[in-house]
Amino acid sequence: MHIDIVGIFSKMGPAALAVVSVLGLFGLYTLAIFFERLWTFFKVRRASAAFAPIASRHLQKGDHAGLGRAGSSDSSNYLGQMLAGGVKTYLDAVHEPSPDISPIELARRELQRQADAMSQKLRRGLSGLASVGSTGPFVGLLGTVLGIIEAFAGIAESGSGGIGAVSAGIAEALVVTAFGLIVAIPAVLCFNFLSTRADHILLAIDQARGEFTDYLEAHHTRTMKTSSGSSKVADAA
Fold first, then answer.
1. What's the rounded Cα separation, in Å, for the pair 17 and 20?
2. Among 57, 68, 150, 225, which one is most buried in terms of CB atoms within 10 A?
3. Distance between CA atoms of 135 and 219, rounded to whole angstroms?
4. Confidence (pTM)
5. Does residue 191 carry a pLDDT above 90?
6. Of 26-35, 136-145, 223-232, which one has max mean pLDDT?
7. Which domain range does residue 173 map to?
8. Which pLDDT score, from 0 to 100, does residue 231 have?
9. How confident is residue 67, by pLDDT bands cut at 50, 70 and 90?
10. DSSP string, 20-58
11. In this structure, is residue 50 part of a structural domain?
């Protein structure tokens, strides 16, 4: 079976061409978001993996200020950005303590805010892919309806009927529907693939956030015990 796609597109009416143009823009948007997100995920994973041993060394030495400086130096280092925000909040709260909220709680809230912001950044554009996947078939169906309307309008004007009179218009309309599915199916697949990749990155970041919170709690407890012991010794002296 031979289908002359070029011939069908060349004979399309203005309405069908408008629908095909919209679907073409949807397809270009899908490709742009897919490759841009892949590149972003690659940079985030690489930067975070490279920063993990650096963060470990700073924490082992107790160099919290150094951790903050190292983490905030690269915008693609989401792990570093999160830890830098949390440690800065903790240090600020220790230097200027609040009577109502402990430094650990303030740091935990900041880490959660950082994680939420990273989730938003990682998922940027994915809602557009979901919209393309859900609306693409309906846009193609709209083109089908418009094509059939044009075909029957041509019959009414010419006064002749039969399958030969409407076959070209119906073929044109169905091609638009097929084009809508061709655009929508990859958009859904790209959305699912990118969502899974984003979830993996966010899970790793969330695990690092929990480990860092545990570290801050242990460090703060040791610091408070040391300060309390020093105060008792000073009082006894």
1. 5
2. 68
3. 52
4. 0.81
5. yes
6. 26-35
7. 5-225
8. 47
9. confident
10. HHHHHHHHHHHHHHHHHHHHHHHHHHHHHHHHHHHHHHH
11. yes
Among candidates 228, 219, 226, which has minimal Cα distance to 86? 219
Q: DSSP class of residue 191?
A: H
Q: Which two tokens stand for residue 160?
A: 């002749």
CB 83 within 8 Å of CB 71: yes
The verdict on residue 232 lying in a domain is no
- Rounded CA gap, 46 and 142, in Å? 44
Does the residue 231 lie in any domain? no
48: tokens are 């975070």
The share of the chain scoring above pLDDT 70, in percent, equals 83
When pLDDT is cut at 50, 70 and 90, the band that residue 154 belongs to is low
- Token pair for residue 79? 């792990």
Q: What is the tally of structural domains in the chain?
A: 1
DSSP 98: -
Burial profile 130-154: b = 16 or more Cβ within 10 angstroms, e = fewer: bebbebbeebbbbbbebbbebbeee
Q: What is the DSSP string of 106-131?
A: HHHHHHHHHHHHHHHHHTTTHHHHHH
Which residue in 27, 21, 20, 74 sits closest to 51, CA to CA?
Answer: 74
Is pLDDT of 114 > 80?
yes
Is residue 129 in a domain? yes
